[in-house]
Design brief:
Layout lengths: L1 H15 L3 H6 L15 E6 L7 E7 L5 E8 L18 E3 L5 E6 L4 E7 L5 E8 L5 E7 L2 E6 L5 E7 L5 E10 L7 E6 L5 E6 L4 E7 L5 E8 L3 E8 L4 E9 L6 E7 L5 E9 L5 E6 L5 E6 L4 E7 L5 E8 L5 E7 L5 E7 L3 E7 L5 E8 L8 E5 L1
Antiparallel strand pairs: 1-2, 1-28, 2-3, 4-5, 5-6, 6-7, 8-9, 9-10, 10-11, 12-13, 13-14, 14-15, 16-17, 17-18, 18-19, 20-21, 21-22, 22-23, 24-25, 25-26, 26-27
Length: 382
């Protein structure tokens, strides 16, 4: 399973002339001394080490700069490996109120829950079984949290988030994906919380699950992806679903597609496989106002910006490099989408950008975070 999960990006990186060896050969930024002044927010990443998964925390200033804060053990094991072993999005997730941080432990089959203090420090509350093997992604809406498990056929499993941060499994909230080796990679809630969407990147499918009033799944629908290798997805606040296609369309190259969610949870295409112009567009996030989508092109060291129209129409409007030899994987937006942060595999650095009014990105910070060979995955910001 792990070989299948790492095959696509490894191939894309070789094709782009960007290898893990090159990434490690480049100088990296050293962590700054721990911050002692008040901060406007925080950025968290995960080491994903096979024997000791840990969270690396940074304080964020009003200018977007990051200063190293501390590391915190999840109490579980990651997947290990050198370049993106999880092949997923949102393996690290903050609650909407920023009170809790959730982290998957793929090697342990668990989810770790941290309390986030007002000074951005973390304290581990508990660790719970994920309801399946190899958990890779998380989604939350109000007090409802779902985890995407990629092991075996893969499944989604739901929990209620209690006020004290503990998770309570929900009866009827586990549903299998379509078949063996589905390659579940991304999971997200619609804005109203009534639909859960999942990508099956190895099957070129997008699943939509109808969530009932008791939090369980009451219906499931499967839609063929318009483009190849639908890796990650994200809903806009207006309800459009934007999908990053690492394989793009039959003509080749990575692309973004958008869909409109119908009342019966079926999907109709709004924009079909709009090329990013780069390789391995695997991660996608959307701005709080729903006007822009940002995709991380791992094979080209670029973050693309796409504008989003009233009905989900997409148009690529620019791109920003993450630096020589970098392999940008997970990306996250801070509160109010003021800053974007990218985790670069192989080097363990975090690169930050200011998000301008037109969606363009201006570099503001770059810091070292994790051991280059730890297999780091996941980033969350506020």
């Amino acid at each position: 399973m792990l070989k299948q999960q790492t095959l696509f990006i490894a191939t894309a990186l070789i094709a782009a002339g960007v290898t893990a060896a090159r990434a490690q050969a480049e100088p990296i930024f050293e962590p700054a001394a721990a911050a002692t002044v008040a901060a406007d927010g925080a950025v968290y990443t995960a080491s994903n080490e096979a024997n000791h998964n840990q969270i690396v925390a940074f304080r964020r200033s009003a200018t977007g700069a990051l200063t190293f804060l501390n590391t915190y053990s999840t109490g579980g094991r990651g997947a290990g490996g050198a370049v993106d072993p999880l092949q997923s999005q949102n393996s690290l997730l903050l609650s909407p109120d920023h009170k809790f941080l959730f982290a998957v432990n793929a090697g342990s089959g668990t989810i770790s829950i941290f309390k986030v203090a007002s000074n951005q420090t973390l304290s581990l509350i508990t660790q719970v079984a994920s309801g399946g093997g190899f958990p890779v992604g998380l989604a939350i809406h109000d007090n409802l949290l779902y985890v995407l498990n990629a092991g075996g056929a893969g499944n989604v499993t739901g929990f209620w988030l209690k006020p004290d941060g503990h998770l309570q499994p929900i009866q009827g909230a586990t549903h299998l994906l379509t078949g063996a080796s589905a390659g579940g990679a991304s999971i997200d809630f619609s804005p109203d919380g009534q639909t859960l969407a999942v990508t099956e990147r190895l099957n070129n499918l997008i699943d939509t699950f109808t969530i009932g009033p008791a939090g369980g799944i009451v219906a499931a629908t499967t839609t063929p992806s318009h483009g190849n290798v639908p890796f990650s997805l994200a809903f806009t606040r207006q309800g459009a679903l934007v999908v990053a296609e690492a394989g793009g369309n039959p003509a080749g190259g990575s692309a973004l597609s958008s869909y409109l969610l119908q009342s019966d949870d079926t999907l109709t295409v709004s924009s079909a496989s709009v090329p990013t112009g780069f390789n391995a567009a695997c991660w996608i996030i959307v701005s709080d106002n729903g006007k822009f989508a940002f995709s991380s092109n791992a094979g080209s060291g670029q973050i693309s910006t796409a504008s989003i129209g009233k009905y989900g129409e997409l148009s690529i409007v620019g791109a920003a490099p993450t630096g020589p030899g970098t392999v940008p994987i997970d990306i996250a937006l801070s509160a109010n989408s003021k800053f974007l942060y990218a985790l670069t595999a192989g080097k363990g650095t975090v690169t930050g950008f200011r998000v301008n009014g037109n969606g363009s990105l201006t570099p503001v910070t770059a810091v070292g975070a994790l051991p280059a060979a730890s297999g780091q995955n996941g980033i969350a910001a506020y």
